[in-house]
Inverse folding.
C-alpha cells in the first residue's frame, strides 16, 4: 500500500530535550516536505527536499533541522524544542519526474513541549 | 500562487449533493485548481484537480467556470464520512522554487447531517 508513515504519532517532551520525528514513504517520491498546523494559522511549510541531499527552507524553518540521506526518509529534528513548537506536524511526499498533481500526507504527529 | 476564497462553513444532508464553491479570480493560465480535504486532524487527502475542463473521479466532480475565476467541488452523494475541512488550492503543477508547496487557506468546514 502506498503510504507516508510518521513516528511517533504522539509525543510529549520538555523544553530543550532534542527529538526527532521520522517520516518515510514507500512510493519512490523525490519530493518530501514537512508542515506544521496550528489553530487559526492553517498548514505552514517548514522544510522541503527536492531529492536526496537537497533540502531547503519553507516558510517557518526556525528551530528545525532536516536531513535527506535516503530517498524514502526525511526526518524532522528539533535540537532544542520550545513550547511554541507545540503543534501538529505532517510529512508529505510527491513525485517530481513528471507533472504531478497529488501530494500524499502522513497521519500526523502531535507534539507537546512543556 | 493565486489566492482563493471559500465560505467558512457549509451544511449538507446525508445522501444529497454537496456543492463547495471557491473563488480564484487572480488565477494564472498555467495554474491548476486542486482540492484537498482534512478529516478531523488527519493528514490532508487529495481529492481532484483541474486546469480548465470539468473533471470527475471516483470521489468528486470539479466544475471550473469558463473564465476560470471560480470553481465548484461536487460530492454527489454526501455521507457522514465526508464531514471534513475542504481546501481549494491554486498552483502550478510543476517547476519553480515553490514546487510542491501547498498553500492551505482556512478552507470550508463541511458538516454532513443525518
Amino acid at each position: 500500500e502506498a503510504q507516508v508513515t510518521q513516528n511517533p504519532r504522539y509525543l510529549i517532551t520538555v523544553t530543550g530535550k532534542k527529538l526527532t520525528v521520522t517520516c518515510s514513504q514507500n512510493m519512490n517520491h523525490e519530493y518530501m516536505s514537512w508542515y506544521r498546523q496550528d489553530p487559526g494559522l492553517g498548514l505552514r511549510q517548514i522544510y522541503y527536499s527536492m531529492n536526496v541531499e537537497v533540502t531547503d527552507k519553507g516558510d517557518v524553518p526556525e528551530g528545525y533541522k532536516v536531513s535527506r540521506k535516503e530517498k524514502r526518509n526525511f526526518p524532522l529534528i528539533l535540537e532544542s524544542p520550545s513550547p511554541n513548537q507545540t503543534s501538529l506536524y505532517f510529512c508529505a511526499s510527491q513525485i517530481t519526474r513528471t507533472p504531478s498533481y497529488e501530494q500524499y500526507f502522513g497521519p500526523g504527529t502531535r507534539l507537546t513541549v512543556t | 500562487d493565486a489566492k482563493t476564497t471559500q465560505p467558512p462553513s457549509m451544511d449538507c444532508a446525508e445522501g444529497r449533493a454537496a456543492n463547495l464553491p471557491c473563488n480564484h479570480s487572480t488565477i494564472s493560465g498555467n495554474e491548476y485548481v486542486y482540492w484537498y480535504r482534512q478529516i478531523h486532524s488527519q493528514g490532508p487527502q487529495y481529492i481532484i484537480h483541474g486546469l480548465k475542463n470539468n473533471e470527475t473521479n471516483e470521489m468528486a466532480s470539479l466544475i471550473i467556470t469558463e473564465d476560470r475565476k471560480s470553481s465548484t467541488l461536487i460530492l454527489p452523494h454526501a455521507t457522514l464520512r465526508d464531514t471534513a475541512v475542504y481546501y481549494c488550492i491554486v498552483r502550478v503543477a510543476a517547476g519553480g522554487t515553490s514546487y510542491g508547496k501547498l498553500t492551505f487557506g482556512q478552507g470550508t468546514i463541511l458538516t454532513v447531517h443525518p
Notes: The first strand of chain B starts at residue 9 and ends at 13.
